[in-house]
Design goal:
NAD; NAD binding; N-(1-d-carboxylethyl)-l-norvaline Dehydrogenase, domain 2; six-stranded parallel sheet; alpha/beta; single chain; Rossmann fold; 53% helix; 9 strands; 12 helices
């Protein structure tokens, strides 16, 4: 049995892929209507699964719904592994792993990249941290919704890799927003410029996924600006601890922070265009 906690834009398709691959799935979601397509637990403690996946936004959300009493119940019902699919900080993952060790539950961090489109297609890229023997246990489940599963090192290493990924996403998205803003001011056709970019070195998954949102100024999710800010804060905190400059990342983070302050935190992170174009 596989348990999935959190049925948002990423968690719901992930649960669907796992079920279609033949694994029995049980889910928990705060909004019960979203769990209607699956065997749903009424309370997190009611999950009975060997492997539990958390697709909640951060470890903080998981810890609020899974205090020690819930963890003890999971362990008594046979839970052996918990996989964190969220983007968070390496320290939070390691602290969670230390806490769950007391219950005999191993933690693997496997943050997802590829967005909601990748989740729906089952082509996510996972950066995995954990002991090799623990990764081996959960890997068959992870591969049901991912095309890339890369074991980066011990617990926390997957999360550090995801923060590196988010640096590329955020700075590329800002660059795309600035490019389309400049094109507009220069009297160029935005769609024509995008076609040119797609055919050259500037082509990227970010361009493919986000150019149309910016061109139409339509910012349905996707990945939210709030979450982009969260991820960049974690990346900057890790950089500060390790002595990395991250000059462009810090500038991009300021633009996303401004976008949140303007009221667009719940919009797709391509809404940074609205800040860039001011």
């Amino acid at each position: 049995m596989v348990g999935v906690i959190g049925l948002g834009p990423m968690g719901a398709p992930v649960a669907g892929h796992i079920a279609r691959a033949g694994f029995p799935v049980r889910v928990w979601n705060r909004t019960r209507a979203k769990a209607a397509a699956f065997a749903a637990a009424g309370h997190p403690a009611d999950l009975s699964a060997e492997v539990v996946l958390s697709a909640l936004p951060d470890v903080d959300h998981l810890e609020r719904i899974a205090p020690d009493s819930v963890l003890g119940t999971w362990a008594s019902r046979g839970t052996t592994h918990l996989v964190v699919l969220s983007t968070t900080s390496p320290d939070k993952v390691r602290d969670l792993a230390a806490r769950l060790t007391r219950f005999g539950i191993a933690v693997v961090d496997a943050p997802m990249s590829g967005g909601d489109a990748g989740a729906r297609a089952g082509t996510l890229s996972l950066m995995v941290g954990g002991a090799a023997e623990d990764v081996a246990v959960v890997e068959p489940v992870l591969r049901t919704f991912s095309s890339t599963v890369e074991h980066m090192g011990p617990v926390g290493a997957g999360t550090a890799a995801k923060l590196c990924n988010q640096i590329v996403v955020a700075t590329t998205l800002v660059g795309l927003a600035e490019s389309l803003d400049l094109a507009q001011r220069a009297g160029l056709s935005g769609p024509q410029l995008v076609r040119v970019l797609e055919g050259g070195l500037a082509s990227s998954a970010v361009l493919d996924a986000k150019a149309a949102k910016i061109l139409h100024r339509e910012y349905s999710l996707g990945g939210s600006t709030d979450n982009q800010v969260k991820d960049l804060r974690y990346a900057v905190a890790l950089a500060d601890r390790l002595g990395a400059r991250l000059t462009q990342t810090r500038e991009a983070a300021a633009l996303f922070e401004e976008t949140v302050r303007s009221g667009l935190g719940g919009a797709d992170h391509s809404a940074v265009f609205e800040t860039v174009r001011l």
